[in-house]
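Q&A log
Question type: sequence-to-structure
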Amino acid sequence: MKYKTRLSLDLCFKYIFKATGLLVLALLGGILAMLVYNSFSFFLDVKPLDFITGMEWNPTANDPKYGMLPLILSTTLVTFGAMLIAIPLGIGTAAFIAEYASPRVKNILKPTVEMLAAIPSVVIGFLGIVVVSPGIASLADLSNGLNALNGAILLAVMALPTIITVAEDAIHAVPKTYKEASYGVGATKWETLIKVVIPAAAPGIIAAVMLGVGRAIGETMTVLMATGNAALMPTGFFDSVKTMTATIAIEMGEVPYQTTHYFALYAIATVLFMMTLAANMLGEYFINRFRKFHAV
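Response status: OK
Response body:
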């Protein structure tokens, strides 16, 4: 009787977990369908190529312009700058926690990093306005520091907890036998870390980086507050920029319902969705390549 009960419970939970997995896929599919449906209404008025390659975003002008290339480049620039800061700092911190830190330091550093993730994005944005922005303006002799560099620094801070936590888990999960074998042939701790541990943990580190990229691309409030929100073609990190997420957040609350401008924001969201999906697929590709390499 107990055996049959256990089998019934196993079967019941199997279907429950299967249903939750399918529900997640259904939600994702529903979101994508909603975005595509509303975007289609926009593309009845504006050609997709003109939308993607257009050099001007000014939907409220007498002659509305719906070119989102400045928004794409601004988002890419801020995200790229954030990853330039966050990836080496995050992986280095993760390696220190996993390999070099004493138990006492580790017990202090890990909770501190995790607490950093709990800081609201609006607080990070406020600190960017009152602390980082004046510093950038002073160092670069600018009228203000609300630019792409400011947004990149703040996004790097926000992405660090994710990158550090996931990368540290990946490094910590490398079997001790790998390190012992490296030490056995005379390698130093540094050589073991660089040539053995980090390559072995590469799939997890890449996953950490891609999660950080996703956090940076999708962040709204921080870049809305800290980047200046100028929908112009960026030429460098000291230019004020306007990201796709900030554009949606600023304009969605004021745009007339079911107008071309309204549907244009859905088109931006669709492009943003595709960019995030492409980044995740690229990360998954490299993760699988590293797994196959280690399997061989």
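Response note: The chain has twelve helices and two strands.
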